[in-house]
Amino acid sequence: MPLLGWPLVLTLSVVTLVTMVVTLVAWPRVRGGRPLRVAQRVGLLLVTQVATVLLVAAGLNNYGYFFGSWSDLVGQTSSGAPDPATISRALGVKPDSSGTDHGRTGVAPSQTQSAVAHATQSQWSTPAQWSTKGRVQAVTIAGAHSGMSEEALVYLPPQYFQPAYRHTRFPGVEVLTGYPGMTTALVERMHYPSILLSEMAHHRAKPMVLVMMRPTIAPPRDTECTDVPAGPLALTYFAEDVPRAVASDLRVNATGWGAMGDSTGGYCATKLAMTHSSVFTSAVSLSGYYHTLRDGTTGDLWGGSPQVRHLNDLEWLLQHQPAPPVSVYASIGTNELGHNGIVDTRRFASLVRPPMSVQVVTVAGGGHNFRDWSRVVPAGLDFLARRLA
């Protein structure tokens, strides 16, 4: 049974209800001496509590998309060893009968079948709808420089399939979840493709290719999009490998990218723009933070080096290095009062100076959740569309 979805929640609901009924019926009927009766009743309570906790955990996971599979839950990656091939193997796209160029490299069917084994969103639209709705395709992007590989969902806008745009190269945007995150949440819960489609229809946004990913490329560790000394080269993967791989096989610009994300994804998006401004010109941070973190999920990401830690601290960079020529859109809820909340966002904004710019948007009554992030996604996409080539 899948970890995500209502079947597991409903099954655990039934199990919880049954354990409660059994506890109520069996409670007055236990037999034996006093120690044995106490032990039996404690056992009944424990079984009921465990079932209840599992039900709540499954419900929260179903809402938050924290873990997408049992292998994710136990810290195993499902993407397998990195494939040295570029993204074209995963897409496996070829010119159709209309002559529209879906991608520049064709592959053998066996390679395509293997590469898209984890495709879950290919039915977002049918081929007949691609020129009006666009396409969401599951792919695996292998990093030539980082040696890392991760699954992604790529949204190609409808213009990508229209003959009038057959020679157009589109701007690219990396969209990142929080930690640990599920990429499917960006489509099913945050509705990025649908919102971009709506914004384009209302002429508030221009066509962009969305490369939707999670920042957890070395599960269960939270790398914070950092090149960890003697560890995962997460920053190299997201900042260099992903744009190059996508640009080499799709009609997407190699530079002039945007980045967008929530929570940890917001920190990563801003970090990509600030540390690799030659590739990323703008970023949108939804409830992101702007300083380095160290906790049980990250461990030591800097190899004990204060310098490496500083170079991954966005506020330190603004205080000690020249500001990069990038634009940042930072949203934060007024109810986010913790160390990574509204105070941190305002502190970051106060440090920004030309040629960098920042636009801070506060969400009245907003918190750290999908509902409030979704309210800002349209404006965030519009912000990127105005700034990308």
Automatic annotation (TrEMBL):
GO MF, one example: acyltransferase activity, transferring groups other than amino-acyl groups
Listed Polar residues bias regions: 108-122
Lineage top rank: taxon: Bacteria
Region (Disordered): 93-122
Bilayer-spanning residue ranges: 6-30, 42-60
Pfam families noted in UniProt: Esterase
Keywords (A to Z) from UniProt: Membrane, Transmembrane, Transmembrane helix
Keyword Disulfide bond in annotation: no
Signal peptide residue numbers: none
InterPro entries: AB_hydrolase_fold, Esterase-like, Mycobacterial_A85_antigen
Claim: Signal is one of the keywords in the record: no
PANTHER family: DIACYLGLYCEROL ACYLTRANSFERASE_MYCOLYLTRANSFERASE AG85A, ENTEROCHELIN ESTERASE-RELATED
Name assigned to this protein: Esterase
